[in-house]
Amino acid sequence: MVCCSASLMHRAGSTPAKATALGKDSFLGYVYLALAIAVEVLGTSLLKSTEGFSRLWPSVWCLASYGTAFALLSQVIKSVPVGVAYAVWSGLGTVAIVAIGAIFLGEELNLMKVLGIALVVAGVVVLNVGGAH
Length: 133
Description:
By secondary structure, this protein is an all-alpha fold. Helix content is 78%, strand content 0%.
């Protein structure tokens, strides 16, 4: 296992010292992840107001939000494993969008949606607790 880890670090251009340094930066990675999720949720919330990207300013803000979110996500994966980052990103983003849809956009929230959200959250928890790091 050590030889495989060393081989993967070598291919990625990392060393054990760099891997340790990245571990120290993981808190900042999670801060960036929270910001990326917030900005992506903003962009998704604006999507309906673009009316199929036919309205200029909502479209500009929507696309700028997505661009910023992906730029932040590209920084996140320097210190957070990509699988964990994407699971948290998609899970929390989905929960936030469903909540925004129900609260602000008048979308129905039924038992099946709540069950689906619970399964998404459970999946993110399992990845984080189950050693995906």
